[in-house]
Q: What sequence folds into this?
DNA sequence: GCCGTTTTCGGCCCGACTGTTTTCAGTCG
């Protein structure tokens, strides 16, 4: 996980704890002990501060879900870069079996059965067994199970090819910091999918402005701690692979051409194709290292200079998908995009009352300190038993706590909300009286995903008839790299949302990012209000808001399209406008 | 393993779905 010179971060520690849990589970360890490690992993990954600090001042030991055994493991990881417990487990259980846990439909029991009766302990062996019929012959296995396994292995391959946005961004930031320390490097810039705010990232791309020869930079790169493999692509580009399996492309440029190089390292293939066509109309050619006109190159020290030379305004990176932005720029019709500073309220936050890790007060203080004007607290509802959903008595208790908190504030308000489960028939699991006691209601599907498109659409449409529902949470239910969206007629949903005045959510949890940005322009055209929800389960989750804003920008949305750019009173008015008086 | 006491040991998420069976175990959210 770590090596000398590399500072361990909380995500790496959380990964070790997750691995320990998985190995223990396969060993047949007590299920609650396994769960304790998972809880600890989650608590660690959402620590608001560096793990070293939390360890040093004792706050780690006080963190819920982190007990003495976990603290000891973390001390070892931070001090030595490895965990002897994990290493022991690795010797007892074939690591391939742990990888199998990520295949849907395979749990501990089935994997042990596969291992014991077929002697299979790697993914390739498992795939072979699924294809040649051996798997389907095991007791309580069948054709369907074998097909699921083959599908699961394929999607695992995809999952290792792509990374979630927030993980890729963390890697990119770390790389930029390391690169900017190298002699000869003037600046390092994040480019590629990360800069375009893509929800999934294949390659981390960083552009380096250097005042020395690229070869000198490459030499220093190869010596960076943690670099495992180094492959030159051409005289200005290298591919780095790190010990942890992550990879990154580093593009070196001179300062005078930085604009041309950064634009090409950032834009999608389609953006660059259309930009090339536009450039040709004024006799320009965009080549890898520079912008040319005939035999003379045009200086482009920054992106503004590049777009300017082509008669265009600077195009925000999130828009560079080749979906009409070059044409809009040429026509002076680029949208004015929403920015993080426009957001007044953090919505969709869970507390310890359901499955969050911070209290109402901790969360509210953190949101206020981050400069927002309001916080929408929305714990799970009663039927979400797995997430500690709130019964009406706890709702009343939380309401009293929020009222008390608000009395002590000026200029900041915590709102009483709920994330209510949409039941199979489209109704909610609270009566009107309970819903009326809240400032706003988010309604989300959390169960019964396997409906036909007609059934699921009818279910959500019916939910929108409930006059207390203000927002439909994570409308399509997808989990990136893990679960497909359920089938839903989004045109029908958007039409109704606009007609009755219900907002649709951009859920900014980096595992969801749902609605998909590709749907947002259609929503905007129909006049649907979009709510950006953090879906925070801890203070650290407040940072999701920025990812949500990135998605909104990708969808060409402006401040007026977003519900939580409204001041708190107007937000509550929107949330309550359909309620009976 | 963690938590919270009724303070050092007992409880911790439960109901629905899937794919297999032919009455239900295993997985999942």
A:
């Amino acid at each position: 996980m770590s090596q000398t010179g590399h500072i361990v971060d909380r995500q790496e520690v959380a990964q070790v704890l997750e691995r320990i849990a998985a190995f223990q589970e396969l060993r047949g360890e007590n299920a609650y002990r396994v769960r304790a490690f998972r809880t600890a992993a989650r608590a660690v990954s959402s620590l608001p501060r560096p793990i070293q600090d939390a360890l040093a001042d004792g706050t780690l030991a006080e963190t819920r879900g982190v007990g003495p055994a976990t603290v000891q493991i973390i001390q070892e990881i931070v001090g030595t870069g490895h965990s002897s417990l994990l290493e022991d487990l690795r010797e007892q259980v074939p690591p391939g079996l742990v990888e199998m846990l990520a295949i849907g439909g395979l749990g501990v029991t089935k994997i042990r059965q596969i291992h014991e009766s077929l002697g299979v302990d790697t993914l390739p062996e498992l795939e072979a067994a699924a294809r040649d019929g051996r798997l389907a012959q095991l007791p309580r296995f069948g054709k369907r199970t074998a097909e699921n396994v083959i599908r699961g292995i394929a999607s695992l391959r995809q999952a290792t090819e792509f990374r979630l946005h927030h993980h890729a961004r963390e890697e990119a930031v770390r790389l930029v910091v390391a690169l900017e320390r190298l002699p000869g490097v003037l600046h390092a810039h994040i480019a590629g999918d990360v800069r375009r705010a893509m929800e999934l990232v294949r390659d981390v791309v960083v552009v380096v402005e250097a005042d020395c020869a690229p070869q000198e930079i490459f030499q220093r790169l190869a010596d960076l701690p943690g670099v495992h493999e180094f492959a030159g692509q051409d005289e200005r580009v290298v591919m780095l692979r790190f010990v942890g399996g992550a990879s990154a492309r580093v593009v070196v440029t001179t300062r005078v051409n930085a604009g041309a190089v950064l634009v090409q390292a950032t834009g999608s293939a389609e953006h660059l194709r259309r930009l090339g066509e536009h450039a040709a109309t004024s006799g320009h050619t965009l080549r890898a290292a520079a912008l040319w006109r005939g035999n003379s190159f045009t200086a482009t020290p920054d992106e503004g200079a590049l777009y300017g030379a082509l008669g265009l305004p600077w195009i925000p990176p999130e828009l560079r998908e080749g979906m009409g932005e070059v044409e809009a720029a040429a026509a002076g019709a680029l949208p004015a995009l929403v920015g993080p500073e426009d957001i007044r309220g953090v919505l969709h936050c869970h507390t310890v009352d359901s499955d969050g890790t911070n209290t109402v007060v901790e969360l509210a203080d953190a949101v206020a300190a981050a400069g927002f004007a309001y916080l929408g607290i929305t714990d799970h509802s009663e039927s979400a038993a797995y997430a500690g959903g709130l019964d009406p008595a706890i709702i009343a208790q939380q309401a009293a706590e929020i009222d008390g908190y608000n009395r002590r504030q000026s200029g900041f308000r915590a709102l009483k909300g709920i994330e209510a489960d949409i039941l199979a028939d489209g109704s909610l699991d609270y009566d009107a009286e309970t819903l009326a006691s809240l400032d706003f209601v988010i309604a989300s599907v959390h169960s019964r995903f396997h409906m036909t498109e007609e059934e699921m659409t009818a279910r959500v449409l019916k939910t929108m008839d409930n006059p207390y529902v203000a927002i439909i949470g994570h409308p399509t239910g997808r989990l990136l790299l893990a679960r497909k969206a359920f089938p839903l007629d989004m045109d029908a949903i958007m039409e109704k949302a606009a007609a009755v005045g219900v907002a649709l959510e951009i859920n900014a949890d980096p595992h969801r990012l749902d609605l998909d940005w590709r749907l947002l322009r259609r929503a905007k055209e129909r006049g649907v209000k979009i709510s950006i929800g953090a879906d925070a389960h801890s203070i650290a989750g407040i940072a999701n808001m920025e990812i949500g804003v990135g998605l909104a920008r990708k969808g060409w949305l402006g401040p007026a399209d977003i519900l939580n750019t409204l001041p708190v009173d107007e937000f509550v008015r929107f949330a309550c406008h359909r309620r009976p008086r």
User: Anything to note?
Assistant: The CA atoms of residues 228 and 243 of chain A lie 5 Å apart. Residues 340-576 of chain A form a domain with the TIM Barrel fold (CATH 3.20.20.140). Chain A has three domains: 3-160, 164-330, 340-576.
